[in-house]
Amino acid sequence: LSLSDTSYKVDIIPEKVTDASCVKTLLHDIETSGIVYLEEYFDVSDLSEEEIFDLKILVSLFSNVKTERHSAIELQNLINSQLGSLSLSVTSMTKRNKDTKIFAVLSASVLDNKKETLAEIIKEVLYTSSFTDKEVIRNIVRQMKMESEDQFTSRGHIVGFTRAAAGVSAEYALNEYYSGYEAHLKLKALEKDFDS
Length: 196
Prior knowledge:
It is a single chain. The chain is built from six helices and five strands, in the order βββααββαααα. The chain is an alpha+beta fold. The strands form two sheets. The chain has a three-stranded antiparallel beta sheet. Helix 4 runs antiparallel to helix 5 and helix 4 runs antiparallel to helix 6. The termini are far apart.
């Protein structure tokens, strides 16, 4: 592409704002080839550093543990066969006034004719996930710790930068406690003292 192939005109994305049940919802009526994309943001800015780490564990467990209706494998098969995607994550956003907010984010995609299925699966995962199988949780914690260790060899410079920047930036502080060296130390301690 050359510069002449691009347009200087900025496309305006249509937006409809609704306020259903005291929840602000933004709808973008654009062509997506019959695919519905959903993102739900839950403000968790009031969590402590320890609770941010707990949220990391919780996010990793969702859709990887059984629910009232499905085993973990059945749930994964259901998600893979009926949805395009379903994930939970944590992110931060800083406004121009430097005020930083932390959000738990549920993201999903699904064919338009399967919106009801998506709603049912989200409801099942959020409200009926079971956290009683200690071995499943232990294995997920081990896997998280191994992934954390791998980042030191593949992205050690980024881990170091994030740790240093955490002292001056709320966003980097979140990254440090959620996925940086501080989170790694907590994962190691959790795995070591899992039964206590």
